[in-house]
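Give me the fold.
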Amino acid sequence: MKGEIDKCFPVFCRLFHFLRRSEVMQKSEIAAEIFIKGYNCAQSVFYAFCDELGFDKDTALKISCGFGGGMARKEEVCGAVTGGIMVIGLKYGRGENDDTSSMIKTYEMTRTLMERFAKRHGSFICRNLLNGCELGTPGGQKEYKEKELRKKICKPCVESAVQIIEEIK
């Protein structure tokens, strides 16, 4: 009997890894899909976790709306990262009846998200990710569209933020 279990264990592990990987891909695909529909980076990441967290999707879209483009196209912290921080806060953050350990865990996870994102993309600052394209100007908007930065840079950032959250949660 023990020999049979030992033979099955590696198969089970591979199956578990495959299923876990599929789950990660599914959320990143949801985020990418809504991003392509025209929602911003922060909205797309936050939205992808609504079902899991039992949070209303329309409310999530409204709350996260101002965070796109590095916060209202000011090109500060990438909206995919801020959307991820909202997910972390909703799941682990300190509420009215929680002690400071919730806040400490949230800060640790937030730093991990930011560090891993920067390692993958070179930065978590929108203006750096977009190589200086100024989203807040008409010329910058034109450049963003002409160079297909939404597809080439922002979509991968949205997918990556979701994947990182899945890895650290």
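The CA atoms of residues 97 and 103 lie 12 Å apart.
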